[in-house]
Amino acid sequence: MMKHTFNVPDLKKIRLIVNSDAKNEADDQYAIVHALLSPQFIMKGLIGAHFGEERSQTSMMDSVKEIELLLDLMGLSGEYPVFCGAERAVEGGGLLVLGCRSGYKDMTGQCYMLPFPGPLADLCGIEVEDFTLIGPLQQAPDIQWEGGAVLKGDTFADILRVTSDSAEVLAAYASEYYAGKPALVRCKRGEGSTYYYGSVFTEAVAGALLDEIGLTSPAAEWAELPEDVELAIRTHEKTQKSYAFLMNYAHTEQTVVFRSPKRDLLTEKVLQGGFPMQPFEVCVIELS
């Protein structure tokens, strides 16, 4: 093992788990070796990831073996735990979100001679039967969501056709010649799901999709945060106490609404209800 001529203070060290499709391309080997040799990282484990079935039917295990080979060559066999990732990410409980133009080129930039989205079609439960560029003089299509909201498409419109009984239309185009055609489709695969959206994601669409998926802020139970306030949560490895770091990145005052009393470790104040954060102010909140 390489000896370093400098030390990193414990408070500056970062706990790290490497998830790598190490057998896919050569760059991952360099990244893994760098992470293992860096004194700033506390390596907690390595995970072998799959990289599809085009080149191998056992790509996840190929990556695991490649990681184990690297550890052996470095004289580190048995020093770090190596785990198997999901053989197939979605079927294993993963969530895959795709936008328009997905899956139409291979790794060399050549178009597949298949209906879009190419090799992703079965996973998504759809085919693109037509597509159009929304030109600068054209109106972006309305998209009607199941819950009643009407949002705008942007730049491209993939006009979808459902091909699987496991697929469900969550939104449809509501204007232009393709009105009534699916715009957002969810397809269940094993324990997971794929979402294919036929246009370019806008902020409004991304927010609606996050609501549909059910992803919420990790602070939702104890605070309501404005968009300009960044949140990071860290847990101390030894004490298992958790802390929230809040920073107001705006040039103006932003109000954070605390739903339950929380102590700011920097000021020793208990924050409750509406709290005005000054521009670039930082709070360190004790969570547990």
TrEMBL record:
BP GO terms, sorted: galactose metabolic process
CDD domains listed in its UniProt record: A4_beta-galactosidase_middle_domain
Domain (Beta-galactosidase C-terminal): residue spans on this chain: 230-286
Domain Beta-galactosidase trimerisation, chain residue ranges per copy: 86-213
Gene3D superfamilies (alphabetical): 3.40.50.880, Golgi alpha-mannosidase II, Ribonucleoside hydrolase-like
GO molecular function terms attached to this record: beta-galactosidase activity; hydrolase activity, hydrolyzing N-glycosyl compounds
Matches recorded under PANTHER family: BETA-GALACTOSIDASE GANA (PTHR36447:SF1)
Name of the protein this chain belongs to: Beta-galactosidase trimerization domain protein
Organism of provenance: Paenibacillus macerans
